[in-house]
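Task: encode each sequence below as structure tokens.

Item 1
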Amino acid sequence: MKKYILFLSVIVINLNILLAQTGNVGVGTTVPRSTLDVNGTMNVNNEINLGGTNSAVGNSGTVGDLISANGAANPTWKKFDLPNGYLDGLVLTASSLKSTTVGASFAGTGTGGLPYTENQALPASWVEITGVSEPTFRITKATNIVNIFVQTVAQVTGTDATGSFGCGIYIDDQLKFTRTGIVSGASGSYRILTLNASISNLSVGTHSYKFACAQRNVPVGSTLTIGQSQNTAVLSATMAGTSSSLKILEPIQ
């Protein structure tokens, strides 16, 4: 019995020496990097107390509280008031904002433009306004909504100034949304065009977005520009430019 007591005493002494030397305890690791280093999963069946001291038990928080990191300081419990159904809805996961004063110009030919249909490929007769296009954006969830908002200005000049046009949103070089317009009046007349498209459930992976415009009918002697000014006395370059926002909404869980 004395041998066993002596053996256990040696183990306890050696363990105390080890703890005194390192000050760290490791679970699943022989090289603990912190006071308590757990290398593996952890199962907690009771409360977690934060902010305790040697003389007082820490705060266990209240129902619904979440642990909030506090940099080098101690973490704290925080309450986040989320509306009912929040976790079942969609949240913004990515966004992009772009603008440009370089647009598209169409000299009048007096002939009608080519018809266009949904999901058609981007034809040569359409002019892309590259400054607001997004070559790459990523979808990570099967349920999603991609919202694209574009605002631009069409201006027409000429003795009999008039011109009709169409502008569209292309996803992966396929037409998904379009709006048409017409400008007529004195030389330099202009109008604002706004597109607001919501495209649902794109496939998971990488996609591209392009904004492009085409003439529908511009008479000979008229010139139609979209996204750029051709008469700065009436419309400045900045005011005539194109701005675009792309937002991706996906489930939070």
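Item 2
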Amino acid sequence: RERFEQICRREVEIPGLTIMRDVAIARSEFVPGEQAVTKLQEFQNDDILFGYCELPEIIKYVQTFTGKEVKAMHTMLINKPPDPGKKTSRHPLHQDLHYFPFRPADRVVCSWTAMQKVNRENGCLVVLPGTHKGELLQHDYPEWEGGVNKMYHGVRDFDPNAPRVHLPMDTGDTVFFHPLLIHGSGMNKTKGFRKSISCHYASADINYIDVKGSIQDGVEKEVFEMVHKKLVARGVDPTKLTMKDLWMFKSRDVSLPLN
């Protein structure tokens, strides 16, 4: 939490870090510090935050999904804001595999840890049990009146009557889930921020796929639009890179010896 606050105050600069703001906040007057930040992504170059991803208590469970050789692929610290009245603090129901150009899905897992008490009032996770046994579905931006945050894609077609399970959690509680599991989170109806930290892991010998022409084609285009400016600033020609290059660049080995 302290490191998060340092980053928000711009006391430290983390190479490769992406800082995101809520779409409703971005459209309003400038909001300083922690209140302006809704998510940190790609903190693999920060030893303090990345320490979470290397915790033996986490990795020992991750290895039951991925196998012995593990890579941390995608990192997030989520600072879900009090909803500004536009319902933009919601996260639509989605499948994480929608964003990933690697397979097999059964060798990918997310570790999601509550940094404080999480419940339905401040927007806990909600899942559709059993959907991890299905297939990757078409995603798109939901047509929400108040707007939708960048890259907050949702499953286009699913059974609205499907059973849902909400996951209230205490500080430090951790859930592991499959990348095909349909999940999301509700609005934060409290006056405080709801913090969680997560990492997606994968087997070190996963296979990268070309998503061009697939239902993930739009994700690839949007990702390169987002990173274009950063890459050019570093003297890198984005047209020379693939999605595989981007993911391999930010992945980190976190394997532990199996007993």
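Check on item 2: The first helix runs from residue 2 to 8. The chain has a mean pLDDT of 91.
End of task.
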